[in-house]
Amino acid sequence: MIAEDNALLREGMVLLLTSNGHDVVATCAAGPEVMPALREHRPDAAVLDVRLPPTFRDEGLRAAVQARSELPDLPILVLSQYVEQTYAAELLAQGARGIGYLLKDRVGRVEQFLEALERITTGGTALDPEVVTEILSQKAAARPLQALTPREHEVLEMMAQGLANGAIAERLVITERAVSKHIRGVFDKLGLPPEGGNVHRRVLAVLAYLGNNAPESSA
């Protein structure tokens, strides 16, 4: 399901998704239409614009938060024209799995957009690198990050983007073993237990990095 008030962009996403083997079961152009459509169609994923009519403020974000409450397993990819750090952090704080936040210009980069959609539908996260950079640059000074090494900063930023260990290793031209070592260091320095290393714990680390009140992991 797609919720986007710009008709050209909305129809463009419909064409893009259908031409790549996906079915678009519903489209919305305003915030109040989102939840009724989600309840009726129960899609495999929802793509929501942050700012929707009638106020063009945070209707899409509020719909995403409500949807995660009513349909906790629904993967949601949020689109925004600008980096809105509060919205991104709030959305992440609602749950660890199946969440994405991209800037709208990524929709024009077909492979990146489809990759992000695929990632969230398989339970991962997909944060736009520019969103991550903006959030971290504005919050870093007030967070307990001073103990992290420059490499640990890089690894954690890529974790926030939703990259797996193998992809991080490829980006940094290091071994996966080295990536795992850096991640254990991040867990330690952010006060998270290092053992386990599952997806939930990774997102807890990201939430701690972004300055959210992440729930304690039972893993």
TrEMBL record:
<dbReference type="InterPro" id="IPR058245">
    <property type="entry name" value="NreC/VraR/RcsB-like_REC"/>
</dbReference>
<dbReference type="InterPro" id="IPR039420">
    <property type="entry name" value="WalR-like"/>
</dbReference>
<dbReference type="GO" id="GO:0006355">
    <property type="term" value="P:regulation of DNA-templated transcription"/>
</dbReference>
<keyword id="KW-0238">DNA-binding</keyword>
<keyword id="KW-0805">Transcription regulation</keyword>
<feature type="domain" description="Response regulatory">
    <location>
        <begin position="1"/>
        <end position="119"/>
    </location>
</feature>
<feature type="domain" description="HTH luxR-type">
    <location>
        <begin position="141"/>
        <end position="213"/>
    </location>
</feature>
<dbReference type="InterPro" id="IPR011006">
    <property type="entry name" value="CheY-like_superfamily"/>
</dbReference>
<keyword id="KW-0804">Transcription</keyword>
<dbReference type="GO" id="GO:0003677">
    <property type="term" value="F:DNA binding"/>
</dbReference>
<dbReference type="InterPro" id="IPR036388">
    <property type="entry name" value="WH-like_DNA-bd_sf"/>
</dbReference>
<dbReference type="InterPro" id="IPR000792">
    <property type="entry name" value="Tscrpt_reg_LuxR_C"/>
</dbReference>
<dbReference type="Pfam" id="PF00196">
    <property type="entry name" value="GerE"/>
</dbReference>
<protein>
    <submittedName>
        <fullName>DsaN</fullName>
    </submittedName>
</protein>
<dbReference type="GO" id="GO:0000160">
    <property type="term" value="P:phosphorelay signal transduction system"/>
</dbReference>
<feature type="modified residue" description="4-aspartylphosphate">
    <location>
        <position position="49"/>
    </location>
</feature>
<dbReference type="Pfam" id="PF00072">
    <property type="entry name" value="Response_reg"/>
</dbReference>
<keyword id="KW-0597">Phosphoprotein</keyword>
<dbReference type="InterPro" id="IPR001789">
    <property type="entry name" value="Sig_transdc_resp-reg_receiver"/>
</dbReference>
